[in-house]
């Protein structure tokens, strides 16, 4: 293919190879083209169009009212602003829990918007859905631990897997997702020792948020690391604007800190 065409094809980021090579994966949430361009320039590996957009963009107090159309719209915006990062779209509450068929039907507009992978919250109970999407050509990222779409069942945004039975269940959930074909998994708000056990038990890369450096990579909500989100921040957030004068600099600092293992530190862990 000649290089003078106006549209550049998106790069394929090989996350399995990064894990195998011991290169940390730097992931951020992103919701629009301008920030996507900054993240691309800073060499962020993966951009997640998270349903956290319901909180940081829409001002809601949970992610539960975010729609499929919202995520599809923001995915298309991020895709237009970037070329190198892998694009993962979060499937919102109610768009995939009903059945594998419902999940596939609703993953389609996200893939059509440019998502290369979709993320679904859940472990063993969502394994059949992961198997169905994967077998139909859609790569899946699992998400276990603190799953914000279950906030009412959990009873708040609480650390998960703290007791032995919770830890055993979480490991089984992660293994079930891998066995069903997930190629990536987010571990959210779990103790460091459990994150280490899950990561060493899995062959696929793990991405931590509040899950210590014992993961193959890290993710944060962009607005949290830029210190522009409202409300109380979780323990796992670090303000990367500190010591920086530009947003671009803060994103570069985040990528460097993830790559060299200096983020997250013990102060960000459970
Ligand atoms: N802006 C933003 N950042 C996020 O990280 C985020 C969202 N929104 N929306 C969806 C979920 C909600 N998340 C949260 C929100 C709060 C805590 C939190 O404050 N956790 C307590 C843990 C308390 C405990 O169980 O010990 C903490 O002190 O860190 C954690 C995750 C993560 N996700
Ligand atoms: C924090 C990440 C993992 C997420 O699911 C989101 O931003 O919605
Ligand atoms: Mg989410």
UniProtKB/TrEMBL annotation:
Query: Per the UniProt record, which EC number(s) apply here?
Result: 2.1.2.11
The metabolic or biological pathway listed in the UniProt record of this protein is: Cofactor biosynthesis; (R)-pantothenate biosynthesis; (R)-pantoate from 3-methyl-2-oxobutanoate: step 1/2
Keyword Zinc assigned to the entry: answer is no
Q: Which residues participate directly in catalysis?
A: 188 (proton acceptor)
What's noted on cofactor binding?
A: Binds 1 Mg(2+) ion per subunit.
Signal sequence, renumbered to the chain = none
Main location, first listed in the record:
cytoplasm
Which InterPro entries does the UniProt entry name for this protein? Pantoate_hydroxy_MeTrfase (IPR003700), Pyrv/PenolPyrv_kinase-like_dom (IPR015813), Pyrv_kinase-like_dom_sf (IPR040442)
A molecular function (GO) term = 3-methyl-2-oxobutanoate hydroxymethyltransferase activity
Question: So what does this thing catalyse?
Answer: (6R)-5,10-methylene-5,6,7,8-tetrahydrofolate + 3-methyl-2-oxobutanoate + H2O = 2-dehydropantoate + (6S)-5,6,7,8-tetrahydrofolate
Positions contributing to Mg(2+) binding: 51, 90, 121
One GO cellular component assignment for this chain's record is: cytoplasm
Q: Which cofactor does it need?
A: Mg(2+)
Keyword Lyase belongs to the record: no
EC main group: transferase
Q: Which UniProt keywords apply?
A: Cytoplasm, Magnesium, Metal-binding, Pantothenate biosynthesis, Transferase
| SUPFAM superfamilies (UniProt xref) | Phosphoenolpyruvate/pyruvate domain (SSF51621)
GO annotation terms (biological process): methylation; pantothenate biosynthetic process
The entry describes its oligomerization and partners as: Homodecamer; pentamer of dimers.
In which family does this protein belong, per the annotation? Belongs to the PanB family.
* Role played: Catalyzes the reversible reaction in which hydroxymethyl group from 5,10-methylenetetrahydrofolate is transferred onto alpha-ketoisovalerate to form ketopantoate.
The name on file for this protein is 3-methyl-2-oxobutanoate hydroxymethyltransferase
